[in-house]
Amino acid sequence: MPNVAAIAPLAPSDQPIRWFDTCVPAGFPSPALDHMEQRISLDELLGIQAPHTYLVRVSGDSMSGIGLYDGDVLVVNRALKAGHGDIVVACVNGEVFVKRLQKRQARIVLVSENPRYAPRYIMEGDELLIWGVVRNSIRWYASSDRSQA
């Protein structure tokens, strides 16, 4: 069963948003925040390289150990070469997964970040396609419906 669902490819955006170049404390807000405004594009902030970047939604809890949860949206760059330790969207024999890519000696292993799930060793004869490297994740905290994204 796939644990990612395609959402859409990303196109370049020409709409910058406000950026306050300061850390926001999780306590009392700083009065200096009113004076720190700049403009930044989400393309720049998220390292989006359209048309090589697309979005997928996570399904399940196999990557919860690194903070990727059911329903999170992943920003995936298919132009990057996947290396040892990268979080990737991979297709193995037609099944699509989001996993950590590991190279152990001459073997390739797709590792979950939840101890309840066993590693997936790529065996001789398996077809492995790396569909991209996960660069960012997006999570909703508001109680509004996420289906609009």
From TrEMBL:
<dbReference type="GO" id="GO:0009432">
    <property type="term" value="P:SOS response"/>
</dbReference>
<dbReference type="InterPro" id="IPR050077">
    <property type="entry name" value="LexA_repressor"/>
</dbReference>
<comment type="similarity">
    <text>Belongs to the peptidase S24 family.</text>
</comment>
<dbReference type="GO" id="GO:0006355">
    <property type="term" value="P:regulation of DNA-templated transcription"/>
</dbReference>
<dbReference type="InterPro" id="IPR039418">
    <property type="entry name" value="LexA-like"/>
</dbReference>
<keyword id="KW-0742">SOS response</keyword>
<keyword id="KW-0068">Autocatalytic cleavage</keyword>
<dbReference type="InterPro" id="IPR006197">
    <property type="entry name" value="Peptidase_S24_LexA"/>
</dbReference>
<feature type="domain" description="Peptidase S24/S26A/S26B/S26C">
    <location>
        <begin position="23"/>
        <end position="134"/>
    </location>
</feature>
<keyword id="KW-0378">Hydrolase</keyword>
<dbReference type="GO" id="GO:0006281">
    <property type="term" value="P:DNA repair"/>
</dbReference>
<dbReference type="GO" id="GO:0003677">
    <property type="term" value="F:DNA binding"/>
</dbReference>
<dbReference type="Pfam" id="PF00717">
    <property type="entry name" value="Peptidase_S24"/>
</dbReference>
<dbReference type="GO" id="GO:0016787">
    <property type="term" value="F:hydrolase activity"/>
</dbReference>
<dbReference type="InterPro" id="IPR036286">
    <property type="entry name" value="LexA/Signal_pep-like_sf"/>
</dbReference>
<keyword id="KW-0234">DNA repair</keyword>
<dbReference type="InterPro" id="IPR015927">
    <property type="entry name" value="Peptidase_S24_S26A/B/C"/>
</dbReference>
<keyword id="KW-0227">DNA damage</keyword>
<protein>
    <submittedName>
        <fullName>DNA polymerase V</fullName>
    </submittedName>
</protein>
